[in-house]
Design a protein that fits this description.
single chain, 16% strand, 172 residues, alpha/beta, Rossmann fold
Length: 172
């Protein structure tokens, strides 16, 4: 019951943020981009490898990347390579209190990629608070307030990551 209350408060806070948080958003030409953020929910080893491969591509392009993951209960944190937050970082009043998550959303990334195939309310809250210039995510009917660029993808996370990379590298 306590978790339901916290999630409902979080959803309410998120809807308010969508209305009030209006940082300067823009599609940055990829060649000018310097910082890229990646946020995702931990699922399995394959998704972890997909994220690592995407980071390698950005590094080869001379871009800096920062990653944060949401770690659900009873999931493995592979390699402890990325900063993470959990449901325990959600206060009773529906505030995310993770220092790593709060630092991440304050970073003015040129691109912030959300690599989940279905929405996670905790990550949506971070996306609504984010200072990123261009937020990129998978397309779904309620996704418009969270993203400047939405990607149609019917495949798995690997396909989504590849498609996102292909689209943003084409931005001029």
């Amino acid at each position: 019951m306590k978790t339901v209350i916290r999630l409902n408060l979080l959803k309410f806070r998120t809807s308010r943020l969508i209305e009030t948080n209006k940082p300067a958003r823009a599609n940055v030409p990829y060649k000018n981009a310097q910082q890229i953020g990646i946020i995702f929910t931990v699922e399995d080893k394959a998704k972890h490898e997909t994220i690592k491969n995407l980071i390698k591509k950005f590094e080869q392009d001379g871009k800096q990347s920062e990653v944060i993951e949401f770690l659900p209960e009873k999931k493995d944190n592979y390699e402890f390579k990325f900063n993470f937050f959990t449901e325990n970082d959600l206060s009773f009043w529906g505030n995310i209190v993770s220092v790593d998550a709060l630092k991440f959303i304050e970073t003015p990334f040129d691109f912030l990629l959300y690599l989940d195939t279905s929405p996670n309310p905790l990550i949506l809250h971070l996306l609504a608070r984010s200072k990123a210039k261009c937020r990129v995510g998978r397309s779904w009917s309620e996704g418009h307030p969270y993203f400047e660029l939405m990607i149609e993808s019917v495949g798995n996370v690997n396909v989504l990551a590849e498609t996102m990379y292909n689209y943003i590298t084409q931005l001029r």
